[in-house]
Amino acid sequence: MRLIKSFPPITGKHPKILILGTMPGRASHAANEYYAYKHNHFWKLIYEIFDARQETAYSKKAGFLREKHVALWDVLRRCRRPGSSADSAIKGETPNDIAAFIKRYASIKHIYFNGRQAEKYFKKYFGNSIKLPLHTLPSTSPANAGLTFQRKLARWKKIRAAYIK
Q1: What's the average model confidence in pLDDT over 126-146?
Q2: What residues form DSSP beta bridges with 76?
Q3: For the chain, which has fewer Cβ within 10 Å, the N-terminal or C-terminal residue?
Q4: Which strands, in side-by-side order, build the sheet including 2-5?
Q5: What is the CATH number of the domain that holds 31?
Q6: Number of domains composing the chain
Q7: What residue numbers bound the domain in which 44 lies?
């Protein structure tokens, strides 16, 4: 079982929204980019939410999040995961210091979880200690084949509503 680590957060000066995943998968670690696996819907959803044309360069994708006041990070700082990239295979996890992150970026008004596993680990380590609205969205992973892209998009559009407020 290999030890894997999360990436630093993507954030601008005054994020309004924090999206939390669980832990980057193999393709993301290989590319050193959040959601690098080509079949993951994350970036496509983000651009659709804001009615923008999707960029291909990772630096532009990260810049787009900053421009839209969206921070991106993972609940877990490190863990062990066997060959699989499945979040359900995670063992020996350590969380990121999300409480300190929220304190530093007091402009954050909503937290969105990219799937139930992110929510599960957040609740395990932070319980109800972070007093912000929490929203669980369908995982953008291709393993979440039970929902079409359009159905995921309909649920992910909640982010746009929070962004406009």
Answers
A1: 89
A2: 95
A3: C
A4: 2-5, 76-81, 91-95
A5: 3.40.470.10
A6: 1
A7: 2-164
